[in-house]
Amino acid sequence: MGTILISGTIVLALLGFGNHVWWLAAAGVFFLYMQYGRDGGAQSSSSGGSSSSSSGSMPASYQAYRKRRDQQAKWERRYRRERPLETRRQERDRSK
């Protein structure tokens, strides 16, 4: 995925010689890649209610993995506590 974003940034930069708006687009894509594409994507791409969600990239360290796993467990416990009927329905559907 990173290769596609880098090559897209290069193409947009080359198109920028004719139209300067493409330079801004290339800078935006590059910024988003640097901000979220490497290790920051794990924190921003988690889904709120699903219990078996996995982020697309591996965490940078074991501590980052533990932090993300503990946060996910905390969210799941909160979801079960706040929505007991929905949780029971999901468990019943899983057992069938």
The largest pleated sheet is described as: none
* Spatial separation of the terminal alpha carbons: 38 Å
Strand content: under 5%
- Runs with pLDDT <50, length 5+? 41-53
Secondary structure category: mainly alpha
Q: How would you describe the oligomerization state of the chains in this entry?
A: single chain
Mean pLDDT: 78
Strand elements, count: 0
Helix-residue proportion: over 70%
Number of helix segments?
Answer: 5
Question: Secondary-structure element sequence?
Answer: HHHHH
Describe the structure concisely.
This protein has 96 residues and is an all-alpha fold.
Task: Outline the secondary-structure elements.
Elements: H1 2-15, H2 21-37, H3 41-44, H4 62-82, H5 84-95
Description:
The protein has five helices and no strands. The chain has helices at 2-15, 21-37, 41-44, 62-82, 84-95.
Features:
single chain, 96 residues, mainly alpha, 5 helices, elongated
